[in-house]
Amino acid sequence: MAELWRPAGLVERYGRYLRTMHEVIRASVPLMELAARRCVERGPADPVAGPLARYLERHIEEERGHDDWLLADLAAAGLDPAEPLRRQPPPAVARLVGPQYYWIEHFHPVSLLGYITVLEGNAPAPWLAARLAADTGLPGAAFQTVNHHAVLDCDHSAELDRFLDGLPLDRAQETAVAVSALHTADAAGELFARLARGGPSLPSRPERTPDR
């Protein structure tokens, strides 16, 4: 992440970061709503489903509207806040978010906790928003998402750790959470590396071998 915030080219790179984070974060509430519905459908026969649904319902309200913060940050930075809503999210974003839909639908909604654990367990440093404002010259209002998540994600992460410790997970469910977390860490690392390199968050095209 340190490479992402290097001063050279930071203004342009920060704009790409905001657009990409909107593409990721706007999926958070829909993912949790889907997982909560699937928990309800599982009913009392599933000892994990009831507590998980209640946790998700609380967390949905805590996360609602965070994608709007990113659009406001774009506007404050002098960028078009409608752009992320017009473009197709790139494959690197779909690789990060998409498997969660599959695992919720085709295994167990508890898988989503691995995704949430990684994303909220890597909160921005408390000083980052001020440093980015100084290095870019952009107004402080362009960094509200970074600033808010530096505070909120630490509390959310601690709450999730306590919740996971109390869930009666079986071996397969423990594995599902771990696999989800490992995939999320890998895909998020790839996404941030692409942003740090300054290129689009799209996979590079392989070079074509000339016909002989």
Question: Could you give the topology of this structure?
Answer:
Blueprint: H1 10-25, H2 28-42, H3 49-63, H4 66-76, H5 83-86, H6 91-106, H7 112-120, H8 128-136, H9 144-166, H10 171-197
What key attributes describe this structure?
Iron-containing redox enzyme family protein, Heme Oxygenase, Chain A, 212 residues, elongated, mainly alpha, single chain, Haem_Oase-like_multi-hlx
Summed up:
The chain has 212 residues and is mainly α. 68% of the residues lie in helices and 0% in strands.
Task: Describe the overall structure.
With 212 residues, the chain is mostly helical. 68% of the residues lie in helices and 0% in strands. It starts with 9 loop residues before the first helix and ends in a 15-residue tail after the last helix. InterPro entries: Haem_Oase-like_multi-hlx. It comes from Kitasatospora herbaricolor. It holds the Pfam family Haem_oxygenas_2.
Order of helices and strands: HHHHHHHHHH
Span of the ends, CA to CA: 43 Å
> Major beta sheet, specifics?
none
Number of helices: 10
Poorly predicted parts: 200-212
CATH topology: Heme Oxygenase, Chain A
Helix/strand-derived class?
Answer: mainly alpha
